[in-house]
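Hi F.,

I've been meaning to write this up properly since the lab meeting, where we talked about keeping a consistent format for the predictions we share between groups. The idea is simple: the sequence comes first, exactly as it goes in, then the structure tokens exactly as they come out, then a line or two of notes. No screenshots and no reformatting. I'm using this chain as the first example so we have something concrete to point to.
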Amino acid sequence: MNPERVIMIFIDGIGLGKQDVHDNPFCFTDTPRLSRVLGGNSLCRGAEGFYSPGLGLFGLDATLGVEGTPQSATGQTTLFTGENAAALVGRHVNRYPGEKLKSLLREKGILSQLVAAGLKPTFANAYRPEFFDDLKKGLVHSYSCSTWLTYYAGLPFRTLVQLEHGQALYMDITHHYLNRMGYPVEIVEPEEAARRLLALSDEHDFTLFEYFLSDVAGHLAERRKAREIVTLLDRFLGYILEHPGGEKTMLIITSDHGNLEDLGHRGHTLNDVPALIKGPSEFIRKAGDMENIGDVVGLVKNFLDLHE
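Output, unedited:
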């Protein structure tokens, strides 16, 4: 395995919003762990550019030079391929990728690129049994970009059995959703889920985890739910940020578009999205040169010493 490793945590629908204690849950919610690593700052626009040895917070443009509000399918395709998907199709595309975007994920997906380079990437999210019934048919239904990314790379999807053995994470981090759907999987604390993700990353060159309930909460625009999500993220992300990965590890926490940071409305925003990077200082400085979400793949490949 490559001595360097990357952990990429994709948090759907979070931007760097203004310091607003009424509409921004990252400001009206206590986030002790994130604030501690950010030098007392909240995960808001005012903290953009924060730097300490081995950690930096940068803002990335999600509009990609295309008119309109950033959306999930084009944003995630851009984030996972390094190509401007919105420019390719001429607009921002919501929800699931269509054929053009799936082709881009097939040809340029970061997981496929890493497999082709002889590295060992993985998608940490676990799937329910019914997904595997569809997988046998070749994925005939609509799925998110991360699922197609994994599928085109030919990587195995993680199961609930692996989840129960601590070898995967579920999309809600704590497993409460699984229990409500009738799967009696053990409930875990956010810190335990974070510990499992770190352990999983020890076995891979690149580990991707996706959390999307932040975007759901943004669309609901309910303060109580938003506060719950931000508290969970503070505990989960804070644990990972507080546990050193060594000089050979780079952690990337980022998003596809803004939403949750502004509860004043139920839609996506034009705000920059965060790129919270932890790793060797040399790469923190390089991360500061990124301009938009399409630059993340290049940073990953540079760190893993991959070249076109």
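Notes:
The chain has a mean pLDDT of 94.
The CA atoms of residues 47 and 96 lie 32 Å apart.

If this format works for you, I'll send the rest the same way.

G.
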